Automatic annotation (TrEMBL):
<dbReference type="InterPro" id="IPR003594">
    <property type="entry name" value="HATPase_dom"/>
</dbReference>
<keyword id="KW-0902">Two-component regulatory system</keyword>
<dbReference type="InterPro" id="IPR050736">
    <property type="entry name" value="Sensor_HK_Regulatory"/>
</dbReference>
<dbReference type="InterPro" id="IPR036890">
    <property type="entry name" value="HATPase_C_sf"/>
</dbReference>
<protein>
    <recommendedName>
        <fullName>histidine kinase</fullName>
        <ecNumber>2.7.13.3</ecNumber>
    </recommendedName>
</protein>
<dbReference type="Pfam" id="PF02518">
    <property type="entry name" value="HATPase_c"/>
</dbReference>
<dbReference type="InterPro" id="IPR004358">
    <property type="entry name" value="Sig_transdc_His_kin-like_C"/>
</dbReference>
<dbReference type="GO" id="GO:0004673">
    <property type="term" value="F:protein histidine kinase activity"/>
</dbReference>
<keyword id="KW-0418">Kinase</keyword>
<feature type="domain" description="Histidine kinase">
    <location>
        <begin position="196"/>
        <end position="303"/>
    </location>
</feature>
<dbReference type="GO" id="GO:0000160">
    <property type="term" value="P:phosphorelay signal transduction system"/>
</dbReference>
<keyword id="KW-0808">Transferase</keyword>
<dbReference type="InterPro" id="IPR005467">
    <property type="entry name" value="His_kinase_dom"/>
</dbReference>
Length: 309
């Protein structure tokens, strides 16, 4: 697998930088809009049936290019969720028993997962506001729990299209085998930038998107006294060799993935790169067509006295 180090990419415009910062929120909003479409089809055979909720999500997504509007959306996330939920409840009340239909029940379960993830993302956005270099002090178990919740939400949101397992012995043809290895040489505790956790999740989501069910995704993090080392690898379709350096650029995807339906903006790799550089780290990418992709990141650990927790 050919690996290169990425040291520089084209600079971003201010609106692009803001949208990059809100990438994980954008992903969740897009998933939420999709779920509202599915529920509308199931309840009324109309993808725009829940038009008020969809219009709200559309306005929130449009505001993600504005840092002030983004923070306002995060501060009022509970009222936004309540607005969407109320419209769904009203539609269900007008159709007794509809909520028990399998396709509706699946969407409602997925919606609860989406709401839970959205609340977490909003809290993280607000925590980073004014403190873009905020560091976290957490246990390995806490970080693993965060990722298990994210992966469970992905599985629920697939509506049965795929499963996620953590033991290769039970992997079926429509399952992803996910190997999470987070370790610390310092009392089983981790110090990492809050936004770096965001970038880690984006890389795992990318690996899932471009790997067919039945494949494997590995996310490995190791922390010692000096640095964080992250590797995310998949067994997906890979990236054409000639595009390996440019696929990191804002809004770029490999030319061989145009058929893949995604909920993001095409800049998960871009965000991971900029976060790496923000904290003085190094970024490598390796890929081989038909065999998958690997991203490696190293970030020096700021002395504890110099970092906020």
């Amino acid at each position: 697998m050919h690996e290169i180090e990425i040291t520089e990419i084209p600079p971003l415009k201010p609106a692009e930088q803001t949208l990059l910062d809100m990438h994980s929120v954008l992903n969740v909003f897009n998933v939420l809009w999709s779920e509202l479409t599915l529920i509308g089809l199931a309840l009324a055979d109309d993808p725009a049936h829940l038009r008020e909720g969809q219009a709200l999500i559309g306005r929130l997504v449009a505001g993600l290019r504005d840092p002030v509007a983004s923070l306002e959306a995060a501060r009022h996330i509970e009222s936004h969720i309540a607005h969407v939920a109320a419209e769904i409840a009203e539609s269900l009340a007008a159709r007794p028993g509809a909520g028990r239909r399998p396709e509706v029940a699946r969407s409602l379960a997925s919606l609860e997962s989406v709401f839970a993830v959205l609340r977490v993302r909003a809290r993280e956005v607000l925590a980073r506001a004014g403190r873009p270099e905020l560091w976290l002090d957490m246990t390995v178990a806490e970080l693993l729990s965060d990722f298990y919740e994210v992966l469970a939400a992905m599985q629920t949101g697939s509506h049965g299209r795929f499963g996620i397992v953590y033991n290769a012995a039970v992997q079926g043809p429509n399952d992803y085998y996910v190997d999470l290895r987070f370790e610390s040489a310092v009392d089983d505790r981790l110090r990492l930038p809050l936004v770096f956790k965001d970038a880690m999740r984006d890389l795992v989501a990318n690996a899932r998107k471009y790997t067919a069910p039945g494949g494997q995704i590995t996310a490995a993090l190791f922390a010692d006294h000096d640095r964080l080392r992250l590797a995310v690898r998949d067994t997906g379709r890979g990236i054409p060799m000639a595009e390996l350096a440019s696929v990191i650029d804002y809004g770029r995807r490999g030319s061989n993935v145009s058929d893949v339906r995604t909920m993001g903006g095409g800049f998960g790799l871009t965000k991971a790169f900029f976060v790496t550089k923000q904290f003085g780290g190094r970024f490598w990418i390796a890929s081989e067509l038909g065999h998958g992709t690997r991203v490696r990141i190293e970030i020096p650990l700021t002395p504890p006295a110099a970092a906020a927790s």
